[in-house]
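Run log, item B.
One chain of 430 residues. Sequence copied directly from the ordering sheet:
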Amino acid sequence: MVNDRINQLITAALAAVNPSNAIQNHLRLDGENLVIGKRVINLTNKDIRCVAVGKGSVPMARSIHALLGDKISQGLVVTKYDHLGDVKFPANWEVIESAHPVPDERSIHAGDRVWQLLADCTEQTLVLACISGGASALVVAPRNWNALKELLSTSPTTEISQETQQLILAALLNKSIDLTTVNPDENISLSALQSIGTTLLGSGLSIEKINAVRSRIDRLKGGGLVDRVGVGKVIGLILSDVIGDPIGSIASGLTNHPDADNILVGNNRQACEAVAKMVSELGYDPQIVTTELDGEAQVRGVEIAREIITKSAKTVLIYGGETTVNLPENCMGRGGRNQELGLAAAIELAKHNIPAWVITLATDGTDGPTDAAGVKVNETTIDRSLGLGLDAQSALDRHDAYPFFQQLGDLHLIGATGTNVADISIAIRS
C-alpha cells in the first residue's frame, strides 16, 4: 500500500470524527425547540451559554454558533496553542489558548473565566458544554491545599493507588514543596500542578488514573462544572479520547454529574470503522482488532508487528486506543507514544523481512509534546536508517523517536486536526 493510500486512510479516520459533523449529527433546531437525540428543549426565554473546552473545542463551538447564532448570550472557547487558526467568533464569545499536556498560567486564567461565566446561572440558564480531549490541562481551577492533603492521606483505592500517591509526593519534593508549611486555605500552586502533571504523565499510568487525581484537586473537574451551574441545565456534548468512553475520565469528568445530560457525539470506534470501510473499498481485508489498546507503547509495537506478519497478503489490522510510555527521570528524548510504538514495530519487522506496514496516528495531530501525529514504518525502515548512520535501538532506549523519524522523513506532519479521539494504529500485510 503506497503513501497516497496511507494518506487516504488517515483522512477517512479524521473525517469520521470531525467535531463539526459530530455536533451537526446530534443537534438540530426545530422552531424554538432544540432537538438533541430524543431530547427536546424549548428555548423560549432561555439564557443559553456555551462552554467549549479541549482540542476539538473550536469546530464544536463553531457548529453551536452556526446552529443557534444570537440565541447564545455568552460563549467561551478554550483550546490548545495554535489550534485556533484564523477562526473568528462574535464579540460575545471569548477565546483562550492555553497549554497541553501540562497546564500553564493561561490554563489557570481559562479556569477562572469558566468559573466566572457560570457564576450567575438561573433556572432559565442552559449551558451547552462541548467537551473534548485535552481539557484537563487546558482548563484548571485548583482547589486549596487541603484537597491535596486529603488525597494523600486517605486509604489507597483502585483509582488512586499507593503508587500514585507516592508519585505525587515525589513530584512535590522535586519542587521543594512541604505540605506541612503551606497555607491550607490557599489554592494549590501552578508549580505543584505542573510537577504533578509531568510526573504522572511520564509514569506510564493510564489517563483514567491521571484524571482521577485531577478530578480530586480541581473545582471544575469531577462534576464541578455542573455544581457551579447550580439550578441551571447542563448538556454535555462529549467527544471521547478515553478508552471505553467513561464520562468520569474524559476531560477529568467536567460534566460527570447526575444533574447533567451527557451525550457522546464521537469516539475512537467511529474512526476505526471509517478506516475499515476505506480499507475495504481499496480492496483489502480489514479487521478491527480492538478499540481498547493500552499498555506500554514499545510492547504493543512489537506485538502488532508480530501479528501482522502472520496474516495473508492484503490483510489490514486496525487498533484503537491509547498506549503509554514510562519515562525515566530527566529524560531528554523527543517523541510520543505513537512514534515509540512505530519504532518498536519497525525493529521487529526488520527481523522477519516480510512485507508489511505499521502506521500510527494521534487523531489530534500532535503525538506527545511534538508536532508529529505519528509515523509510518515497514520492513525496510531499519535498513534505510542504517544507511543514514542511525541507531534505531538506541533511539528507542532513549525515548528519542522523533529525530530518528525526522531524518527518515517518515513523520506524519499533518498539523492540529481539531479533533481528538485517542490513537489509531493500522497494520498492513503488503
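Observations after the first pass:
- The chain has three domains: 3-13+269-429, 18-141+219-266, 145-211.
- The radius of gyration is 22 Å.
Flagged for discussion on Thursday.
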